[in-house]
Design brief:
Blueprint: H1 3-19, H2 24-33, E1 44-48, H3 59-72, E2 77-83, E3 104-108, H4 119-122, E4 128-129, H5 136-142, E5 147-152, H6 161-172, H7 183-189, E6 192-193, E7 196-197
Length: 200
């Protein structure tokens, strides 16, 4: 990253840091836990927005996906949020050469992080859940296409993630990305905890 660009990103990072709650990192953790995220084990994938899964999967890969969806009652892959901060490019572990698809930047995993950080600790603070509108002023500051953050949910939760996603979209209309994410505690009150959906 060129020095001038690095300075601009650092300035934007500082502006975001000042605008979000001081415990935003904890809010990110609690949000991801709704999908069964485990800091020490879960891998978060990073994809460039607009290129996600643009490459047609090989027939073997497509067959594997279909079989998994049939077995678990739904897909285990889900986009959980996005960031426009380009500094994430320096945080990811690069994918294996045979694992590269168009727009796939790399992944965050505690086992490969040089500082031993869990994935949620390496995400930029401008991370916003999928269902919450990303602030236009942040988008203008970072001036990137954006990056999608995705993960695999536990197989036991695959058939229920659609219900969680629908509730998140409804609550997201009322959520300010810069404010407190009250929807997390609301969902807990409805019975959503650690990748499990309880009937209510």
């Amino acid at each position: 990253m060129e020095p001038s660009l690095r300075a601009n990103v650092a300035s934007a990072d500082y502006a975001v840091h000042r605008e979000v709650p001081t415990d935003r990192r904890q809010e990110i953790l609690e949000y991801l836990k709704l999908f069964g995220y485990k800091p020490e084990r879960t891998v978060l994938q990073v994809h460039i927005a607009g290129f996600f899964r643009k490459k047609s999967p090989a027939s073997r890969e497509a067959t594997t996906r279909q079989a998994a969806a049939k077995r678990y009652g739904g897909t285990t892959f889900v986009i959980v949020g996005r960031t426009h901060d380009p500094s994430i490019m320096a945080q990811v572990s690069k994918p294996k050469k045979g694992d590269v698809s168009l727009g796939y930047v790399g992944y965050l995993w505690q086992g490969r992080d040089p500082q031993g950080r869990a994935p949620h600790e390496a995400l930029p603070l401008d991370f916003v859940p999928t269902h919450v509108q990303y602030p236009d002023d942040w988008k203008n500051m970072f001036a990137t296409k954006g990056f999608l953050i995705a993960m695999h949910v536990p197989s036991s939760f695959a058939k229920d993630k659609g219900a969680l996603t629908r509730k998140l979209y409804r609550l997201g209309k009322l959520t300010d990305a810069k404010g407190r994410w009250e929807f997390v505690s609301e969902l807990r009150d409805l019975g959503y905890r650690q990748g499990t959906q309880y009937s209510n």
